[in-house]
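Practice problem: DoxX family protein
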Amino acid sequence: MLKNILRIVIALIFIASGFVKAVDAVGFSFKLEEYFSPSVFNIPFLEKQALVLAVIVVAFELIFGFLLLIKSKLKFTLSMLIALCVFFAFLTFYSAYFNVVTDCGCFGDAMKMEPWQSFWKDVVLLVGLIIVYFLYRHNFNDVEEKSNFKKYLSAFAFMTMVFVINWGITHEPVIDFRDYKIGTDLNIEKEKIAKDPSEFKTYYSLKNEKTGEVLEVNQDDYVNDKKYWEEGSPWIIEEGKTTSKLVKQGYDSEIAKFKPETPDGVDLTDEILKAPKAILIFSYDPKKVNINILEQAEAKLSQQKDALVLGISTNPNTFKTINNAMMDGTAIKTIARSNPFVLTLEKGKIVDKRSAKDYIKQKK
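Answer key — structure tokens:
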């Protein structure tokens, strides 16, 4: 009884984890790009295959989580899940210890976890899997019961997985766990952020030139203790090692990063959020954008006479027939999963969002 409960709980965790990533496989691929980037593992050829790898990992989690749930091919299934858990534990430990990826993306945007939380979650899962392996070791050679129910359930689960992943890649996630979901009022979100801001402190790495001792001191302690900065002090600030650390978590929302600007640096946020209707087309990577789709989308947007129309990207010359605005590429990726992508606001409230390809097909 106990081993069945443990097996089912672990299986459901893998299925849940796989499902939220399957819903938004593109978003998960962005997270893998972070791991493969020069600042982390520096594996550029894998960075280019991030979406393919994201789909493989998601399918791996869902398929083997499902097999564990229905108690099929137990030895092989448990071995694969243990290997996956070891892999994830390595990634989360690396990102936590070196503080390089602040959110592993284990549960997508549905549940944000800090690196150490993710690591210990993987450790607990790994221990649980090893216990299940030990408890079921005498059942590995049992003849599996074959039934039409299992067959049809497996087929349904597989088709659902394919549909959810494909829809999220070619259109938008079936379920939107992001801060920019339809119905979100950016004005209200901005107010919440302003009322409860996060607080950061600057930390200096100080080295004593006489003793070689190194200390990390926050900005307040540095200012309040003159021994660190008075004339003749042996303490010097080490170049390139000053950091900013979160000391109080305020209202957490990706919408804090929504700040489109003109190519000259003029903030357009208020104008966009106050407009009766604003239609924004985004491109997080102008070099890889489909030019044909971009031109068709621009042509359709140019006909919008009752709306504020802007093209927002990381390049001031991306859009040829509408006004250009600029925003950080990572911030754009939190909004847009397609490249290009169209977002429609009414007085700051999100009323529609879709890939530019789907926007072109839209009859309205």
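Discussion: The chain has three domains: 2-170, 199-248, 256-361. Students who identified this feature from the tokens alone can consider the problem solved.
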